[in-house]
Design brief:
366 residues, alpha/beta, 3-stranded antiparallel sheet, globular
């Protein structure tokens, strides 16, 4: 659920629908219990409550979901328990309830601290609310705060991006996710682009923004560990590292994508259909895909190259019993000779040049 639909959003999210929130939470708890019957015994190392905007639900509803996970699975002693939150959907009392319920990491969808950008994106909060949300989270005892910001926004200059990022550092976050705006089909921005009503920064401006990011992150001792993610030492997102290592995870909720027992699955997106199916004890999964060994190998390489460290040749061989050379033949040496990929300490990784055209390099390896 979300308060409203942002102009760039292609995620599975639904504005409004407040009357369904309670019913949805009940259904979600039921699904969590059902999953447990299938996957007995292992306490959770990480839990990630993502969206949409989870914090449009009441804090008490969210804390009941966390309690349910604790009752049926339990958490490892140092489990990372994260939530995505949007400023303007959460106040200091809510934050305190969430912190007391065991959440120890919060990721704010700030996107920009500049009023003009927030209006352009049709975000449901303003700049002051963004700053206040972070302050309130600190006050509630969160010591692992991540901020999501976007660059390459309509009419954005490298100077404006610098100002924005500097503002983010004044909040002293532990983690930053910095995403370049991409225009996805069926969004308001896509429609505007088709009508020539969207002025996006050119490639040179994007390169300058990347340089600004690199300089400021270095200055504040943030290291880049994934294409879009930067952290202070000890604050990499453990949950997301599971995705990038292409390891398995359970997923519950409408539109949730999970990966268990070698099968990638996706649940029905529409929240009402999701509730009805759960209530009638029907299967909520609408897509199932089991990749063969080579396809899964390729997927692990492509996802793993998102990490600055790259993919471990040894781990790939241990997991799949095949090597990079066997799968890619002469294709890989060409990308290495072209300066897009390199080998370092047993890892295959993107070079700085490769990072700038990461999508193209990855498309070659799928
Ligand atoms: S808050 Fe996030 S999920 Fe919701 S509409 Fe905006 S971009 Fe989409």
């Amino acid at each position: 659920f979300c308060k409203s639909k942002c102009f760039y959003c292609s995620f599975s999210s639904f504005a409004g629908m407040q009357s369904l929130h309670g019913r949805y939470c009940t259904a979600l708890q039921k699904e969590i219990r059902t999953h447990h019957r299938k996957q007995q015994g292992t306490p959770l190392a990480t839990l990630f409550i993502g969206g949409g905007t989870p914090t449009v639900l009441r804090a008490k509803q969210l804390s009941e979901i966390i309690d349910m996970c604790d009752q049926v699975y339990g958490f490892e002693p140092d489990a990372e328990i994260s939530i995505e939150a949007n400023p303007g959907t959460i106040d200091v009392a809510d934050l305190q309830i969430l912190r007391d319920s065991g959440l120890n990491r919060i990721s704010f969808g700030i996107q920009s601290f500049l009023e003009q950008d927030l209006l352009e994106l049709d975000r449901a909060h303003n700049s002051a609310e963004g700053m206040r949300a972070v302050e309130n989270a600190r006050h509630a005892g969160f010591d692992n705060i991540s901020l999501d910001l976007m660059y390459g926004l309509p009419s954005q200059s490298p100077e404006a991006w610098q100002q924005n990022l500097e503002q983010a550092f004044t909040c002293e976050p532990e983690h930053l996710s910095l995403y370049q705006l991409t225009i996805e089909k069926e969004t308001e921005f896509y429609r505007r682009l088709q009508k020539n009503q969207l002025a996006l920064p050119d490639e040179d401006a994007i390169v300058e923004m990347d340089e600004v990011t690199e300089l400021l992150c270095e200055k504040h001792a943030f290291s880049r560990y994934e294409i879009s993610n930067y952290a202070k030492p000890g604050f990499r997102c453990r949950h997301n590292l599971v995705y990038w290592h292409n390891e398995e995870y359970l997923a519950c909720g409408a539109g949730a994508v999970g990966y268990a027992e070698g099968i990638r699955s996706k649940s029905v997106e529409d929240p009402l259909s999701y509730c009805v199916k759960i209530e009638q004890e029907k299967d909520v999964i609408v897509q199932r895909e089991k990749l063969d060994c080579e396809a899964s190998f390729r997927e692990s390489v492509v996802i793993g190259l998102r990490l600055v460290k790259g993919v471990s040749e040894h781990r790939l061989f241990e997991r799949y019993g095949i090597s990079l050379a066997e799968v890619y033949g002469t294709h890989l040496p060409k990308l290495v000779q072209g300066g897009f990929l390199e080998y370092s300490h047993g890892y295959l990784r993107l070079t700085p040049r490769g990072f700038r055209v990461a999508n193209t390099v990855m498309a070659e390896l799928v």
